[in-house]
Design goal:
Length: 95
């Protein structure tokens, strides 16, 4: 059995995220120096190298954060989506 190349795994993560554009997601992102961002938002867009999540914590301003698919692969960023009543983590072996 041939192991998956790095790009194939990143492509799969992107395809998974593509299917949830416009849907609510939960983020948990390691921002270094023991800082962790935990937020809920909407997966706004996917691009060839990054994806963008809109976070509406404050009604007066909209915050957008972007991460690479490699961030998901290395678990620097965890993305969870609700699908059919179940929460699924994108990019982990079980999804």
């Amino acid at each position: 059995m041939k192991a998956l190349a790095g790009n194939n795994v990143l492509d799969r993560i992107r395809e998974d995220l593509d299917s949830f554009v416009g849907k609510p997601v939960k983020l948990r992102a390691n921002q270094g120096r023991k800082k962790i961002l935990e937020a809920e938002g909407v997966l706004e867009q996917t691009y060839p190298r990054v994806f963008v999540v809109r976070i509406d914590e404050d009604p007066r301003s909209v915050k957008r954060v972007s991460y690479t698919y490699a961030d998901v692969l290395t678990s620097t960023v965890e993305v969870r989506v609700k699908n059919k009543g179940m929460e699924t983590r994108i990019g982990c072996a079980g999804s």
